[in-house]
Write a structure and sequence with these properties.
Number of strands: 4
Largest sheet: 2 strands, antiparallel
Number of helices: 10
Distance between the termini: 66 Å
Strand order of the largest sheet: 1-2
Structural class: mainly alpha
Shape: elongated
Oligomer: single chain
Strand content: 5-15%
Length: 265
């Protein structure tokens, strides 16, 4: 292939006479939705390191010329990536790859999960798989300070249950407990996935919190969380699968009842 880099933009390939197509980030697009193809191409460039965080992307005109698409399509694709938090526009400077993490990046993943697997049992299985992995890694990485933080949240949980906890309080303390558990893993990618799962499961977790209170099962609720702390303290790997399965058994049961109740209405 006869092409040479553009000296003004290392990501833009300029065709020589006789070239069949340009190569690299901005090679012409094939037969797919134009805006989606532009989005895919830029995301691929970021994931493969052709474009780095904080780096300015090619101008609209450069993208138009190299991808052989209209300016409106380029603008729409950039809007999509800006809304996702992947790109940011700096007035009078241009469009740049976002530096750092933005919560907006989670929204497309969250929406796709809701659309593809909104069923409550699918959500339960997703969180169960995630929590099993988190517990195993946290068990190996935990420090004495980590253990103390988890025990402190559990102590607040006990106090709330003793004093008469509300549904909202129980949901809040449960979220805090599992956030500390996830933080013990000390992995920023796990933190981000945890945020997605937390938002995805919030409605069903609220219903489950109500179920524990209404059915008088708060002692069992405390015992399940105490067992998680014991596993982490003793690094009891053999008990992980059983404990997580028991931890989610009530969630599955409450979800089944909720579905039956809704079906009767």
């Amino acid at each position: 292939m006869n092409s040479r880099p553009n000296p003004n933009n290392p990501f833009l390939t300029v065709e020589k006479p006789g070239d069949e197509k340009a190569s690299g980030l901005l090679s012409p697009l094939g037969g797919k939705t134009v805006v989606e193809r532009i989005v895919d191409r830029l995301l691929q460039a970021i994931m493969e390191g052709e474009l780095s965080p904080g780096q300015k992307i090619p101008t609209e005109m450069e993208l138009c010329e190299s991808l052989r698409v209209g300016r409106n399509s380029v603008r729409e694709a950039i809007k999509v990536l800006v809304s996702m938090g992947v790109l940011s526009i700096r007035r009078s400077e241009g469009t740049f790859v976002t530096e750092g993490f933005s919560e907006r990046m989670l929204d497309p993943m969250l929406y796709s999960l809701i659309l593809a697997g909104g069923d409550s049992f699918a959500v339960i299985e997703l969180r169960q798989l995630f929590e099993t992995g988190v517990l195993r890694i946290a068990m190996g990485k935990r420090t004495d300070d980590d253990l103390r933080m988890l025990e402190a949240v559990y102590g607040e949980m006990e106090d709330l249950v003793r004093d008469g906890v509300t549904e909202e309080e129980l949901l809040d303390i449960d979220i805090r407990f599992h956030r500390v558990l996830t933080a013990i893993v000390k992995n920023p990618l796990v933190d981000k996935i945890s945020m997605v799962i937390e938002r995805l499961t919030l409605p069903s977790r609220a219903e489950v919190s109500r179920g524990f209170i209404e059915r008088g099962k708060l002692a069992a609720y405390l015992a399940k969380h105490a067992d998680i702390i014991r596993i982490i303290r003793e690094r009891d790997d053999a008990a992980v699968a059983r404990t997580i399965d028991e931890h989610f058994s009530d969630w599955r049961s409450f979800s089944a009842r909720m579905r039956a109740r809704k079906a009767q209405k």
